[in-house]
Design brief:
By secondary structure, the protein is an alpha+beta fold. It folds into two domains: about 1-40, no CATH class; about 40-150, no CATH class. The protein has six helices and four strands, in the order H-H-H-H-E-E-E-H-E-H. Strand 2 and strand 3 (about 100-105) form a beta hairpin. The two termini are about 30 Å apart.
């Protein structure tokens, strides 16, 4: 499947349907040696998110979007100045300019290796210096969803589709 140039999501679906095992996209990319599928470049981002100000990158745009909507959001980062481990920065509507930052030390060995491979490939693909932050993930929650989670904490719903979302 990898040599046939199927996308990582198509391979993921085929493996799941045939075996019942759900492999991560990073694992599939490692197997097929195709790392470009998971990286959205600025041109693709502009097509997904119209109205980005000139000179802002996709992360800055998403942070501004969430700020304006008063959403809680979190970044998963590689920040060499803070920690060799992945770092989360959580932004609350009342304090969006000052995140709550913490090291994440509870990844198992395989997860940490996968994240660090993502960092190496991503920083190389985006031509970042070793001392620059690299964002590995961005998550947000709208106020009504947070209210529902607080009301019913035993249920978590995730709506995710590769390279798109229902908030545009």
């Amino acid at each position: 499947m990898g040599r046939g140039k199927l996308s990582a999501t198509q391979i993921q679906t085929a493996i799941f349907q045939s075996s019942g095992n759900l492999l991560s996209l990073s694992t599939i990319n490692n197997i097929t040696q195709d790392y470009s599928e998971g990286i959205i470049n600025d041109d693709e981002f502009d097509g997904l998110f119209k109205g980005r100000e000139h000179g802002t990158n996709s992360t800055e745009y998403m942070m501004k979007y969430c700020n304006n909507k008063k959403y809680y959001f979190m970044l998963l980062l590689n920040d060499p100045f803070v920690s060799p481990d992945p770092v989360s920065e959580i932004f609350f509507p009342s304090t969006h300019n000052k995140p709550y930052t913490r090291r994440i030390k509870d990844f198992n060995k395989e997860e940490l290796e996968s994240l660090m491979t993502n960092v190496r490939v991503g920083t190389s693909a985006t031509q970042l210096e070793e001392n620059q932050k690299y964002m590995m993930g961005f998550a947000w929650v709208i106020p009504i969803e947070l209210y529902m989670l607080e009301a019913f904490p035993n249920v978590i719903m995730v709506d995710t589709v590769e390279k798109t979302n229902n908030e545009n």
